[in-house]
Amino acid sequence: MEEDKLYSPKVLKDIIQKYGFRFSKGLGQNFLIDGNVISNIVDAADITENDEVIEIGPGIGTLTTEMCKKAKKVLAIEIDNRLLPILEETLGKYDNIKVINNDVLKLDLHSVLEENFTGDSVKVVANLPYYITTPIVMKILESRVNIKKIVIMVQKEVAQRLKATPGSKDYGSISIATGYYAKADIALIVPRNVFMPKPNVDSAVVVLDVYDKPKVKVEDEELFFRVIKSAFAKRRKTLLNSLSSGFISLNKDEVKEVLTKCDINPGLRGEVLSIQDYADITNAIVKKQQTK
Description:
Helices cover 39% and strands 18% of the residues. By secondary structure, it is of the alpha/beta class. The strands form 2 sheets. The chain has a 7-stranded mixed β-sheet with strand order 4-3-2-5-6-9-7, with helices on both faces. A two-stranded antiparallel sheet has the order 1-8.
């Protein structure tokens, strides 16, 4: 089999027919059938011979083969065991690939890296199912494993949220949560017609360059994320009302005092605040709690 033609619709159809494979809507399976997009993803990941790569959801190995040509090692994590015999065939010629049949959300990423990589230069590349994008992204970021770059194909609207800035309509809790750990950029927009089967929406490739340390300093990370969750729980509410709604154990007068100390107008809404503003609020709450 010519691995560089795996993206061909004819080759893909022949493979799935040979193995009697059926696409799973439940797993959000949409396979790429465009060689240019695959090349652009590899370029966005800037994979070199020193890189070790984790791929989440290799499918039939279309993107995997291109990364095997450039990377030191590729570890592919595939949840669907029906794809294992297909991957054994399509990736058989490469000696720098290992396939794990598992759910990435159930894996201990620290153990995965320790067992499979030297840890010098690890990247994550993935064509993520739309329904589970955020949990996977946050699992990788929150695990604080030695991963410096994450290149993911996601729903276009999700990509816009990941990169959104304060005051924009796409700005929300995921924008801040991601921005706490990494700098997000959209590398390319991917039209829906380059997938089989064709999804209902367009996609985008997002590059997350992970910071060596979080973008802002907070005294209590759990509280920081509760503050963010509270601020965006009901977008039309003011900060004063949002932060007094139960996620944080402060009454309205205490919330107003905290916001005033941070030079933040209590009448503003959460979507106009920067990540530094949220860090300031968190640290002010911690300080207040310590004096109670």
